[in-house]
Structures are given as structure tokens and as C-alpha cells.
Design brief:
By secondary structure, the protein is of the alpha/beta class. It contains 18 helices and 15 strands. The strands form four sheets. It has a seven-stranded mixed beta sheet, with helices on both faces. The chain has a four-stranded antiparallel beta sheet with strand order 11-12-15-14, covered by helices on one side. The termini are far apart. The chain binds 4'-deoxy-4'-aminopyridoxal-5'-phosphate. Pathway: Amino-acid degradation; L-kynurenine degradation; kynurenate from L-kynurenine: step 1/2.
Length: 468
């Protein structure tokens, strides 16, 4: 004990406090640890067998499993055609890369910039979104630039969601919504999109919210609803009527709306992306989230933004100033320059905001055709770059895949091993009660260069021959 006390003193820790506050077991452990350091034979025993008092915090309890961690690991083999995680393997626009090279060459841009967003970037974002939203957006008070759409979601939830609040999450949902809400001490309340064609879904538009079911989920504890349009993973683009229904409930119950619109530019012919913040009475209660990764096919840049009224954004800024402080300056500068280029040609069809979705529409149709060739019936997305498909109709024998996991997890693991093709299981995007409803679906990502889709085609054609 004397040894331990001395050692703690060396670390500048007041041992009398430790002796009073810590369980005696941890002091004994420390004494043992110190002795072991000088005894090579005992060093091993110490590390392997001694109990360690530091456990995880309660706020992350039960949040350890994560679909991206699990499936990026199993699909890491380069011989696997990876249509799982949503990362483009197409080239980003050349001017975007050139602007980054220029920014990196300017000395002053290699230092910290304004914490809530690089001045040139928030200015560019305000100009673009003023045009889209048809209202004044103050670059300094109505925008926060952060680490990707993830960072925007995190600062929004941390800033505005209180312990004990309820937050409505539409299922299936981008998987981090649930743990983020739980980490804030709040309760996720799920509301599923239901297939109005009873299992015969051909289009993402078939997936709808039941108005009565939705209305019944709102109560005095409902602090916010998280909306995602265009939707990941289904590809649904919410219509004005659907958004109005959500807006009416938000206004009636004085609820916030966290609107994740990272795929805002990726809408296909016949569809229009509408921002819920532009509906009457919604600007005051909505945080709209965007992402550079999705806008310019640069997911590795990890820049995102939240846009909303000053009275909400100021709280997000408090989270940022006390956590991340700021985002990388050269990336923000390059993104700002790219936005200026596209802002100036927003009336031109060649603007990247519109040209990317034209390019992707061809890839979407090709992906659908490939899946049809193996006898599958894909759900054609109206937006985003994912396509879901019911794989249960293939009746694949999964008895060899061990693990007590949902059907889609087992199917994807089987497909990776035996077909060298990867996707993402849809039940990863559901709360506990709805998993069984979605476990026959898997999600493919189609923002891939032609050679990747060619490789997928070879796999699917061979698969088809085996079935026939
Ligand atoms: N929201 C949705 C719906 C997403 O699909 C993603 C990324 N897959 C994000 C947010 C996170 O965006 P970012 O990569 O910019 O952090």
C-alpha cells in the first residue's frame, strides 16, 4: 500500500483522496501492478488476469455492434466486389480535387480557421441555400460546418435533445440515429415505412408512413423527429404532401425536425427534392443537414453542415466549440471554391448538382437490370444511390452459415463467401421490433464506376446460370 501511495504521489494524485474514494480492490490492483513492472514473470499475469476497474460509460452501453465495422471487415478482401458501404469509387469532379491541391499550397490555409465554419465556405453555403430555400440565410449565425453529416447529426442531437425526451425515427433509418439519441439519454421511438403494395414493391414510392400510426407516436415528450429524404436505404423521396403531414404534426406538438438531406441533389427523373424547412412554420423548428461527401462524391473529406435558425444553430455551435472546435481548413477552402463554381452555374444542366444524378440514373437502371437477371425484384429508388431487394425469393440454403443472426446478415455473409459480392443487410437499419419485417432485404450501392458494375455483372450472370 505504501508503494502504491508513493507511486500515486509521483503522478501528482492526492493519495488520501484516492484511499477514501476508491474501492480497496483498485488500490490493491495498483500495488500489484507496480510490483509486477519490475518482475518480468509477473508482468504477463498482471495484464492477462487482473480485473480492471475502468468500464465503459453507461451512455455507450449496448452500442458496441455496428454494421459498418462488421461488414467493412468481412468485405475487405480486394477480390470481393464491394457494393456494400456507400462510398463512390467514381472520380470526384476534377475541379474539386484541383481546388484542394491549391488550398494545400497556400500556407495560411494550413492553420486553424473560424470554428463554426471557414468564412468562405459558410458564405458559399449561404448563397447556394438562399437560392434553394428562397429565404435569407446568415452565413455566420444560421450555418455550422462540422465533420460530415455524422458530425451535424451529433451536434444537433447533443445540443437539442434532453435526457428523457422521445425522438421519432422513421424505419428503416441510417443506423447511427438510434445510438446518437440513446447517447443523449433520450428514447428512440420508431415508426416504420410500410409497403402499400403488400410485399410487391417495385418502387421506393410504395413505402409510406401510415398517417394515423404517425400521429399516435407524437406526445408531450416528443422532442424531435428525424427525417431523411432522399432516404437511405430505400431511396424514397418524400412528397410535398408527406412532408406537410409531418410538418403539421411538428407544429401541432411543438416538435423539432432534424432533416437529414445529405442526398439532396440525387433525385431521379420525375421526382423533386423538397426541403421541409421551406414549408410554412418549419424554418423555426428545423435543422437541415448536408454533406460534402454526398454532394461532390468525396466521402473521405468528411465535411458536413447544419442549416437552421439562429436560435437553434447557436446551441449546435456550443457543442462544436467544446468538442471539435473546427474542421480542416484546406478542405473547407476547396469545398467553398467548388461551391462557388457550381453556384454560378445553377441554371446550367452541367452544374454538378444535377449532372451527377443524370450519371447515376444510368447506373441505377443497370443495377436493377442485373438484379432482375437473377430473378430478383429490386425496389427502384427515386433518389440516393442505394437499391434494396428482397432476397428471400432465392431460397438460398443458409444452414452452413453459423451465427444466430437475422436472415439478411446470414445471406450477405454467405454471398460474400460464396459469390464474392457484398451488400449491407437491411435489418441493421431497424429498431428491435421491426427487424423481422425487413430482414429479407439487402442493400446495394450503385455509385460505382463501370468496371465495378461489370465485375458485379459477371458474378450475377454466373449466379443466374447456376440457378437456371
Ligand atoms: N446521413 C445519411 C442518411 C447517410 O447515408 C450518411 C452517410 N452514409 C450520413 C448521414 C453521413 O454523412 P457523412 O459521410 O458526410 O458523415
Amino acid at each position: 500500500m505504501l508503494f502504491a501511495s508513493r507511486s500515486f504521489c509521483c503522478l501528482g494524485i492526492r493519495t488520501h483522496l484516492l484511499q477514501r474514494d476508491l474501492p480497496s480492490k483498485s488500490i490493491r490492483f495498483s500495488a500489484f501492478a507496480m510490483r509486477s513492472e519490475s518482475d518480468p514473470q509477473r508482468r504477463h499475469v498482471n495484464r492477462e488476469t487482473m480485473p480492471f476497474k475502468h468500464k465503459n460509460t453507461r451512455r455507450i452501453e449496448g452500442l458496441d455492434s455496428n454494421v459498418w465495422v462488421e461488414f467493412t471487415k468481412v468485405a475487405a478482401d480486394p477480390s470481393i466486389v464491394n457494393l456494400g458501404q456507400g462510398l463512390p469509387d467514381i472520380s470526384p469532379p476534377s475541379y474539386v480535387k484541383e481546388e484542394l491541391a491549391k488550398a494545400a499550397a497556400a500556407d495560411r490555409l494550413n492553420q486553424y480557421t473560424r470554428g463554426f465554419g471557414h468564412p468562405l465556405l459558410v458564405k458559399a453555403l449561404s448563397q447556394v441555400y438562399e437560392r434553394v430555400c428562397g429565404r435569407k440565410i446568415d452565413p455566420l449565425t444560421d450555418i455550422l460546418v462540422t465533420v460530415g453529416g455524422y458530425g451535424s447529426l451529433f451536434s444537433t442531437v447533443q445540443a437539442l435533445i434532453e435526457e428523457g425526451d422521445e425522438v421519432l425515427i422513421i424505419e428503416p433509418f441510417f443506423d447511427c440515429y438510434e445510438p446518437m439519441v440513446k447517447m443523449a439519454g433520450a428514447k428512440p421511438v420508431f415508426i416504420p415505412l410500410r409497403n402499400k403494395n403488400d410485399g410487391n414493391s417495385a418502387s421506393s414510392a410504395d413505402w409510406v408512413l401510415d398517417p394515423t400510426e404517425l400521429a399516435n407516436k407524437f406526445n408531450s415528450k416528443t422532442k424531435a423527429i428525424i427525417l431523411n429524404t432522399p432516404h437511405n436505404p430505400i431511396g424514397k423521396v418524400f412528397t410535398r404532401e408527406e412532408l406537410q403531414m409531418i410538418a403539421d404534426l411538428c407544429i401541432k406538438h411543438d416538435t423539432l425536425c432534424i432533416s437529414d438531406e445529405v442526398y439532396e441533389w440525387l433525385v431521379y427523373k420525375g421526382n423533386k427534392h423538397i426541403k421541409i424547412a421551406t414549408l410554412p412554420g418549419m424554418w423555426e423548428r428545423t435543422i437541415t443537414i448536408g454533406s460534402a461527401g454526398k454532394t461532390y462524391s468525396v466521402t473521405g473529406w468528411k465535411l458536413g453542415w447544419s442549416i437552421g435558425p439562429q436560435h437553434l444553430i447557436k446551441h449546435l455551435q456550443v457543442v462544436q466549440q467544446n468538442t471539435l472546435y473546427t474542421c480542416p481548413t484546406p478542405l473547407q477552402e476547396a469545398l467553398a471554391q467548388a461551391f462557388w463554381i457550381d453556384y454560378k452555374r445553377m441554371d446550367d444542366p452541367d452544374c454538378y448538382f444535377y449532372s451527377l444524378s443524370r450519371e447515376l440514373e444510368g447506373k441505377r437502371d443497370r443495377m436493377a437490370q442485373l438484379l432482375r437477371e437473377v430473378g430478383l425484384k429490386p425496389v427502384i429508388p427515386d433518389g440516393g444511390y442505394f437499391m434494396i431487394v428482397d432476397v428471400s425469393t432465392l431460397n438460398v440454403d443458409l444452414s452452413d452459415v453459423e451465427e444466430n443472426q437475422p436472415y439478411d446478415y446470414k445471406f450477405v455473409k454467405w454471398m460474400i463467401t460464396s459469390k464474392k459480392l457484398s451488400a449491407i443487410p437491411l435489418s441493421a437499419f431497424c429498431g428491435p421490433e421491426t427487424k423481422v419485417q425487413f430482414e429479407k432485404y439487402i442493400r446495394f450501392c450503385f455509385i460505382k464506376k463501370d468496371s465495378t458494375l461489370d465485375a458485379a455483372e459477371v458474378i450475377l450472370k454466373n449466379w443466374n446460370k447456376q440457378i437456371a
